[in-house]
Amino acid sequence: MGVVLTVACCLWDVNEHSRHFSRGYNESWADKLFAGFKRNLSDPFRFVVFTDRDRQFAPGIEQERLAMTNPHYCACIEPFKLDEPMIFVGLDTVIVGNCDRLADYALTGDVPLVPKDPFYPASPWPRTNAVVVAPKGCRSQLWEGYTDQNDMTWINACETELLDEAFPGAVVSYKGRVQHCGWERGNSIVYFHGSVKPHELPHVGWVHRHWHAPEGVSA
Q1: Which of 3, 56, 71, 147 would disulfide-bridge 75, Cβ 3.0–4.6 Å?
Q2: pLDDT in tens, 105-154
Q3: Which architecture characterizes domain 5-212 according to CATH?
Q4: Where does the chain have alpha helices with state H?
Q5: CA dist., res. 108 & res. 98, Å (int)
Q6: If you compute the radius of gyration of the chain from its CA atoms, what whole number of angstroms results?
Q7: Do the Cβ atoms of 85 and 44 come closer than 8 Å?
Q8: Where are the domains of the chain?
Q9: pTM for the structure as a whole
Q10: CA atoms of 71 and 10, how far apart (whole Å)
Q11: Which residues of 132-151 are buried (b: 16+ CB within 10 A; e: fewer)?
């Protein structure tokens, strides 16, 4: 078997660093995310949760122990130390469509792709790390030299290009677009940031189908 894609996320227990909107995460969020990628990736992949302790996940999910003893949001930079072709996402993410194009880029590209900030594209932090498509070899860009800076500050200092330009409409913000314009065919990943999370939207058809429903749907 050749090089295999890694899909990664992070999970740690609530602590003093946790904001109010990220205090509801547990193992089931990782399980749902894994199921979403299984439905929407054609080729084999590793699914790795970087976590603060041993946990019970769905079969097929791997675990890596976080180096931080009291994790905060900067832990979201740590997966890039693997230097593997990777799609990194937050737990508050819904996979709504085929992700093969993103996987192919991770396996063949050379520059990490991140979304444009949906609210403040002209701010000092014009990019977000809600989703990162990182080709192999990006350890030097995304991990080496990292010294526990704010994760958003760090990702904006790294050499990256925009997901929005490489794959228009594939990766979209719920609050920045979908909440107002609706889910669209061609969307692959919807990321939730800040308040309003998928578990609060069981009545929204596409969220129910792709996140709440036990079996979900394929793209």
Answers
A1: 71
A2: 999 999 999 999 877 666 655 888 899 999 998 988 899 988 888 888 88
A3: Alpha-Beta Complex (3.90)
A4: 27-40, 100-108, 139-142, 151-157, 163-166, 179-181, 205-207
A5: 18
A6: 16
A7: no
A8: 5-212
A9: 0.92
A10: 10
A11: bbbbbebeebbbeebeeeeb
